[in-house]
Design goal:
Keywords: Membrane, Transmembrane, Transmembrane helix. This is NAD-dependent epimerase/dehydratase domain-containing protein. It comes from Chroococcidiopsis cubana SAG 39.79. The chain has 16 helices and 9 strands. By secondary structure, it is an alpha/beta fold. The protein folds into 3 domains: 179 residues, no CATH class; 203 residues, NAD(P)-binding Rossmann-like Domain (Rossmann fold, 3-Layer(aba) Sandwich), CATH 3.40.50; 43 residues, no CATH class. The longest helix is centred in the N-terminal third of the chain and has 36 residues. It is globular and about 70 Å long. The structure holds zinc ion (2 copies).
């Protein structure tokens, strides 16, 4: 029995519309969850319910303080939250069906929002009753070592941990991170120690100023002066902790990198139109290798769950990753750094951001259009929205071309390189899995 083209198109339309209504109703109830959570930290009577019960129910390794407190936290927070979500899903079904009466609307909103929130209510009540399976259905509060840094779009354990133990006025999202991205609460800089290289340059100073305004403690790293860097912030002149270092002696910064939550790799050199051997070596040494050595040194300080959740490296590359910068050696060296970061991010133990900037006014580019202060402000604003590849440029095509290039290069690196360095040096010309099999059989033999 065959279907006509019209029947196939009708069937596909019905299926897609149903899925769209289901997805829409789930997104809506998640927005309700996050709004309720955010209000729980703003309104005193809700805060007492939420903070005293939910926040105090966990130790910092996410093991529960006591069975009794954990059960009560469900009755005081999870149950009312899930009932509110259920009510919202019922209202959404009613409004949606009244506006667009069809089977797709009814089935989609029922199978999406109503089913989804009913499961949430059942899980919350089961947690309140002390039934063990309910704990297992809550991966964001599962005790144990973090296996991955915070993820970008869907909340994971290390993302949510920061709401409990880093800054309860940020990281409100429960499942999807839209609300935090919208509010600029997806990354908090409050109280974090941030070390910035290239601190005596125009962008370095502007970044330091905006980091201080965002509540960070800053350490200025510079290779061009030994006296403390001073900055005027909010009308006050501040003398910053300043550490002098030299290219090639990155190891000297080990102690600083241990105590830094965030490392901003912002130093660089532009040899402009030079193309001598010396200019090539200097460009790669400063722009590529020095930053890469510091990045690896910083990543070696990420060991504990707390460090996996909190530590970040921001690498200032340049729009030269994809665009001409009238300086071939600057482009080549910055592009190489950008590609090394893309490769390293495949297995990095913490978040690594790229900061791709267009030309801004500095000693290197005195006639550029953008001011360093504006570029730094936009950078901090994008980081607070957890943008992993921050682009600040007046060339709009870069916002389209770079994400495509980043995706393609990252996919290529992922499929043509292996996680285990030992495997790649042992056997040549095989795929990763084949190598793994051969090496493990060699080891067993
Ligand atoms: Zn929580
Ligand atoms: Zn909370």
């Amino acid at each position: 029995m065959f279907f006509s083209n019209e029947q196939i198109i009708d069937g596909l339309t019905l299926a897609l519309t149903t899925v769209a209504w289901a997805a829409g109703s789930i997104i809506l109830v998640e927005l309700v969850r996050d709004a309720y959570h955010m209000l729980s930290h703003q309104l005193k009577w809700l805060y007492q319910q939420h903070h005293i019960w939910h926040h105090k129910a966990f130790h910092s390794d996410l093991s529960i303080v006591s069975e009794d407190l954990y059960r009560r936290s469900h009755w005081h927070h999870d149950v009312p939250e899930s009932i509110l979500m259920f009510v919202a899903s019922c209202l959404f079904l009613g409004v949606a069906y009244a506006s667009f009466p069809s089977w797709a609307t009814l089935i989609g909103t029922f199978a999406g929002g109503i089913y989804y929130t009913t499961c949430s209510v059942v899980r919350a009540v089961a947690g309140g009753m002390g039934w063990k399976w309910a704990n297992k259905a809550d991966p964001n509060h599962e005790p144990g070592q973090f296996l991955e840094p915070p993820t970008q779009w869907i909340v994971n354990k290390s993302y949510h941990w920061r709401h409990h133990f880093e800054n309860p006025q940020a990281y409100f999202s429960g499942v999807y991170t839209f609300v935090d991205k919208l509010l600029g609460t997806a990354v908090s800089l409050q109280g974090k120690t941030v070390a910035v290289t290239g601190a005596s340059g125009a962008l370095g100073q502007a970044l330091l100023k905006h980091l201080i305004e965002a509540g960070a403690r800053v350490i200025a790293l510079t290779s061009s002066q030994t006296e403390p860097i001073t900055l005027e912030v909010a009308g006050k002149l501040l003398a910053l902790e300043t550490i002098s270092w030299q290219i090639g002696r990155e190891q000297d910064l080990s102690e600083v990198l241990e105590r830094a939550d965030i490392l901003v790799l912002n130093h660089g050199v532009n040899v402009h139109k030079q193309r001598t051997q010396q200019a090539a070596i200097e460009s790669f040494e400063v722009n590529t290798w020095s930053s890469y050595r510091l990045l690896e040194l910083f990543l070696s300080t990420v060991r504990t769950s707390e460090e996996i959740a909190k530590k970040e490296a921001w690498v200032v590359t340049s729009e030269a990753e994809v665009a001409p910068a009238q300086s071939p050696l600057y482009e080549l060296s910055k592009r190489s750094l950008g590609d090394l970061v893309t490769l390293r991010r495949l297995d990095a133990p913490c978040t690594i951001r790229k900061i791709l900037l267009g030309g801004f006014r500095s000693k290197m580019s005195p006639t550029a259009t953008l001011s360093a202060d504006w570029v730094a402000k936009q950078t901090i604003s994008a980081v607070k929205r957890d943008i992993r590849n921050v682009i600040v440029s007046y060339r709009f095509w870069i916002y389209i071309v770079h994400p495509v290039r980043e995706f393609l290069v990252s996919s290529y690196f992922r499929t043509h390189s292996c996680r285990d360095a030992e495997i790649t040096t042992t056997v040549e010309n095989n795929t990763c899995s084949e190598r793994s099999l051969i090496v493990s059989s060699l080891e067993q033999g």
